[in-house]
C-alpha cells in the first residue's frame, strides 16, 4: 500500500501501542529544504530515510501517526530570531539577493528559491511536535527535517536558516514547561541552541561533538558552562577526532545520565545528527550505525526514566547520504515507535533497487555495520593517557560541582 504523500508502506509487526501515538513528521514538502546540487545538505537524505523507514514497516500500523507540518509564523520565529533577520530571509527569498552579514548567500548557506517557506516548515514540524508531546497528544515525536542547531538569533550558519530546535524549546516554555533538557549528538557543537539559552536556568543544553579545535563551529569547549544565572546548564563534551563507539559511549555514560538526573527535566529534546559516523565526509569521528543506535536507545530510555516518556527527537547533520543517514535515522524512527530494528536485518530489496536506479550504485546490505559497541564504564577508572578520558574529565570538572556532583566519584 501507499501512505502519506506517496511514501510506500508496509504493515509493521508488533502489538497495538497503548496510549497516545508516536508522531512522525513527514510530507514531500519537507524536501524543499535543499541548497541545490552539490551541497552536502541535500534533501535526498530525508527522502532516502523515509523510504527506508517505510519499507521496514515503521511508518504504518497501530500507534504511529504520520503527519505533515504547517509553516511557522513570523511571530513564532521571532520568539528566537531577530525581526530584522526574519525580514532579511524574506527579502533573500523574494529576489535572491544575499545578505552575507546575516549568513545568507554564503557557501555554507546559499540562498535558494522558497527558502523561507521551507525553513519555516521545518520549524513548524518541531514546534507542532513539541506541542503534541507536551499536551499528551503524542508520546514521542520525530522530525528528521529538524535539528537545525547552528542558526543564530541574528543570522544563518552552518546550513541552518532558522533554529527549529530553539523555537520548539521556547514553545515548550511558553506552554508551562519549567525544565527542558536538550541533548545534541551531532558531530558539530550545538552552538545556536546553546547561545539562545545560555543564561536561562530552565533549559539544560548538552552537546557531545568533535572538538572545536578541529571542526566547525570551533566552540563547545568544556569551560563553556552557561551564563551567570544558569551556571552548569551548558554541558559540552569535546571529543578528540577519530573517537569511535567505545570512547563516545563511555563519554556519554560518564556525563549525560548524571547531569540529566540532577536537572530532572520534564521533557527531553534531542538532536540526532549522524555525522559522527565513520563514513561521513565532513567530520573525523569514527562511530558505527550500532554506536549511534546505542546513543538513540540511551536517550529514549532517559526520556522514559526522567520525563514520563515526553521525547521530541530531531534530525540534523549527516552527509554520508546513502551509506549512513538513512539507516541511522530509520533506526531512530524504529526506537521511537517501539519497534527497534535489529542491525543484522537486511536492507529491504525495494529500497536497494531504488538506490541503484537513482544513483547507479548499491547501498549498504544490512541495517548495521557489523560492530558490537562495548564501552568501558567510567567507574572502572580514569586513564590520564587517553584523549577521550581527558576530555570527559574536563567536562565533569567544569560542570559537576554546579550540580552537587563529585567529578571524581559520581
From TrEMBL:
A molecular function GO annotation: histone deacetylase activity
- What organism is this sequence from? Cellulomonas marina
What InterPro entries does the database record attribute to this sequence?
Answer: AcuC, HDACs, His_deacetylse_dom, His_deacetylse_dom_sf, Ureohydrolase_dom_sf
The cross-references to Pfam families, in alphabetical order and at most eight, read: Hist_deacetyl
Q: Which UniProt keywords apply?
A: Acetoin catabolism
* Similarity comment text for this entry: Belongs to the histone deacetylase family.
The record's annotation in CDD domains points to: HDAC_AcuC_like
Give the residues annotated as coiled coil. none
Q: Which residues form the Histone deacetylase domain?
A: 39-334
Q: Which residues cross the membrane?
A: none
**Known SUPFAM superfamilies for this protein?**
Arginase/deacetylase
Q: In which pathway does it act?
A: Ketone degradation; acetoin degradation
Q: Which Gene3D superfamilies match?
A: Histone deacetylase domain
Name the Gene Ontology biological process terms: acetoin catabolic process; epigenetic regulation of gene expression
Q: Where is this region: Disordered?
A: 1-20
Q: What is this protein called?
A: Acetoin utilization protein AcuC
Amino acid at each position: 500500500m501507499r501512505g502519506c504523500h506517496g511514501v510506500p508502506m508496509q504493515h509493521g509487526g508488533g502489538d497495538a501501542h497503548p496510549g497516545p501515538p508516536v508522531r512522525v513528521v513527514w510530507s514531500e514538502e519537507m524536501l524543499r529544504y535543499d541548497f541545490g546540487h552539490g551541497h552536502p545538505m541535500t534533501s535526498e537524505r530525508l527522502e532516502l530515510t523515509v523510504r527506508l523507514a517505510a519499507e521496514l514497516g515503521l511508518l504504518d500500523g497501530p500507534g504511529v501517526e504520520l503527519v505533515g507540518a504547517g509553516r511557522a509564523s513570523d511571530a513564532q520565529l521571532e520568539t528566537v530570531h531577530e525581526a530584522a533577520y526574519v525580514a532579511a530571509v524574506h527579502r533573500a527569498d523574494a529576489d535572491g539577493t544575499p545578505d552575507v552579514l546575516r549568513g545568507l548567500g554564503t557557501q555554507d548557506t546559499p540562498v535558494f528559491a522558497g527558502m523561507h517557506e521551507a525553513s519555516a516548515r521545518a520549524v513548524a514540524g518541531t514546534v507542532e511536535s513539541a506541542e503534541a508531546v507536551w499536551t499528551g497528544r503524542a508520546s514521542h515525536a520525530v522530525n528528521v527535517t529538524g535539528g537545525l542547531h547552528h542558526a543564530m538569533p541574528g543570522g544563518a550558519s552552518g546550513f541552518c536558516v532558522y533554529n527549529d530546535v530553539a523555537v520548539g524549546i521556547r514553545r515548550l516554555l511558553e506552554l508551562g514547561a519549567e525544565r527542558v533538557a536538550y541533548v545534541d549528538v551531532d558531530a558539530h557543537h550545538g552552538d545556536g541552541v546553546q547561545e539562545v539559552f545560555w543564561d536561562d536556568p530552565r533549559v539544560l543544553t548538552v552537546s557531545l561533538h568533535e572538538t572545536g579545535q578541529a571542526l566547525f563551529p570551533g566552540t563547545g569547549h568544556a569551560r563553556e558552562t552557561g551564563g551567570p544565572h544558569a551556571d552548569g546548564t551548558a554541558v559540552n563534551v569535546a571529543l578528540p577526532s577519530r573517537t569511535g563507539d567505545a570512547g563516545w559511549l563511555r563519554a556519554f555514560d560518564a556525563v549525560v545520565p548524571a547531569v540529566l538526573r540532577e536537572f530532572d527535566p520534564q521533557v527531553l529534546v534531542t538532536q540526532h545528527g549522524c555525522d559522527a559516523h565513520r563514513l561521513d565526509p565532513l567530520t573525523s569521528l569514527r562511530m558505527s550505525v550500532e554506536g549511534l543506535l546505542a546513543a538513540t536507545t540511551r536517550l529514549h530510555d532517559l526520556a522514559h526514566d526522567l520525563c514520563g516518556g515526553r521525547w521530541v527527537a530531531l534530525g540534523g547533520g549527516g552527509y554520508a547520504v546513502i551509506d549512513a543517514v538513512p539507516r541511522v535515522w530509520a533506526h531512530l524512527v524504529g526506537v521511537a515507535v517501539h519497534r527497534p530494528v535489529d542491525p543484522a536485518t537486511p536492507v529491504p530489496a525495494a529500497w536497494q533497487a531504488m538506490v541503484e536506479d537513482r544513483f547507479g550504485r548499491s547501498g549498504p546490505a544490512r541495517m548495521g555495520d557489523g560492530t558490537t559497541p562495548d564501552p568501558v564504564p567510567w567507574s572502572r577508572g580514569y586513564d590520564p593517557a587517553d584523549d577521550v578520558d581527558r576530555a570527559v574529565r574536563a567536562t565533569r570538572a567544569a560542570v559537576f560541582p554546579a550540580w552537587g556532583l563529585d567529578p571524581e566519584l559520581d
